[in-house]
Write a structure and sequence with these properties.
The chain has helices spanning 14-19, 53-70; strands at residues 2-8, 31-40, 43-50, 85-89. The chain is an alpha+beta fold. The protein has one domain (2-89): Alpha-Beta Plaits.
Length: 96
Amino acid sequence: MYNVVKFRVKAGHEAAFLEAHSDGKASWPGLTRGVIIKTGDLAYCLIGEWESPEALSAARPAMIATLNTFRATLDDQGEGKGITDAVSGPVALSLK
């Protein structure tokens, strides 16, 4: 099971955004691997691999608690998405 969360960071707040996830601050129970990729100017995606759909669901309160620590660093993404654009689902095809 994977989840992907898109973020748009306010100019000048990129270091604070990344710091909010570093040093184990995003070590949510059930997360087996997580990465943040830079997808554009001030744009990032968090990609998480989870033990199970239940583990992802159970970790949501902890993820929201982490989000609350850096919420002020984020810009609204527009189109009614708010400050995060999150999706999750099972693996449809493993490439490697």
